[in-house]
Amino acid sequence: MKRFLFLALLPLLTALPALAQHEQVYVNILRSREMPLLLERSQRELAQENRGLLTIGIDIAAQAGTRALTKGFTKLKDRYSSEWTAPVCRDHFYSAPSMSGPLDPSGMQFSGVSLSRDMVDADGSASQALFLSCSLPKDQLTDFITNHRFTLQLDSLSLDLSRIHAKYKADKRVSLEINIVFKATWMDENLTIHSNQELGAFRIALSGLKYDKSAPLYSVGGESAKDLISGYSFFVPRSYSAYKNGDKYVPCWGTGEFDIEVTVKEVTGKVSAFTDYLYDSISKNLPAAITSVATNKEIVGASVAEVIKTY
Question: Which value, in Å, is the radius of gyration of the alpha carbons in the chain?
């Protein structure tokens, strides 16, 4: 009888170590109280300089390491590669509604995004497996306003190579790709709903990191992190609305609700020689997705849309 009970409980007993630890993943959209003031100052400077609207250029340049990494993820579909997603995070791009139009940057409060993946033990203690923080470069705000798009800078990234999902091969190397996608839903003045439109994407790539069991932590920040992130996003369009003022309805535009979706891809083993895979992918696919927003006359205006179409 005792032997029977032991055999019956054996699967549960062997599963206890796996159940003793679980992971928690968080995405945080960062806000800055000073951002609306910085935007206001930048707009005043633009008015004084009379610079006008600059042509929006599509930058499809990619780092060689990113190209090789994406090629590896495309080919490897086994236990040595893994892909996981973080919970979708939602916020408002601006701090208050606007009376000026759908792309009025006034009151922009978005200042960056962070991602953390923590391993939590049964006793509640947590240790960090992955953390990154990206911010809006404040010294480029004037260019962001004139182009109605922004970039992000990678401030810090730390990764515990012993805590990745993908299994290691004999060659103890890991490559990581983090994709951050901005999406929004809004209504224009014609009451047309633009649902779940992609506004832009950012990619962080780490290629061929050597795993050392005695020192599994990889971290980077400052100048060393600048070349690890690429991409851009358009400003979030404000959704059209109206309010009653006396016996008239006055148009206004909302606070720009948007979503951030984060996907993390892991590959272990050597990544193949650098290729033009990602460059070709971006040049064929990304501009088409972004141009659908950029050439919408209801968002950027008829004159700007024509400029972008002929770019």
Answer: 23
- Listing DSSP states for 20-88 in one string gives TEEEEEEEEEEE-TTHHHHHHHHHHHHHHHT--PPPPP------HHHHHHHHHHHH--STTEEEEEPPP
With a threshold of 0.90, does the pTM exceed it? Answer: no
For residues 65 and 227, is the Cβ–Cβ distance under 8 A?
no
Burial 137-166 (b: 16+ CB within 10 A, else e): eeeebbebbbbbbbbbbbeebbbbbebbbb
Evaluate whether 64 touches 291 at the Cβ level (below 8 Å): no
At what angle are helices 64-75 and 277-294 packed, to 10 degrees? Answer: 100
pLDDT tens figures, 114-143: 999 998 877 777 788 999 999 999 888 888
- 129 near 160, Cβ under 8 Å? yes
**What pLDDT digit, counting tens, does each position of 212-256 carry?**
999 999 999 988 888 899 999 999 999 999 888 888 888 999 999
Instruction: Tell me the torsion sign for CA atoms 232, 201, 263, 126.
Output: positive
pLDDT over 90, % of the chain: 39
- The CA distance from 51 to 303, in Å, is 16
Higher pLDDT pick, 34 / 234:
234
Please state the three-class secondary structure of 142-166 as a single string: HHHHHHCEECCEEEEEEEEHHHCCC
pLDDT-wise least confident of 176-190, 240-254, 294-308? 294-308
What would the two tokens of residue 47 be? 């008015």
Residues shown for the chain: 311
Residue (of 158, 281, 300, 275) closest to 224 by Cα position? 158
Question: To which residue do tokens 């495309």 refer?
Answer: 74
Q: Which of 104-108, 258-262, 278-282 has the highest mean pLDDT?
A: 258-262
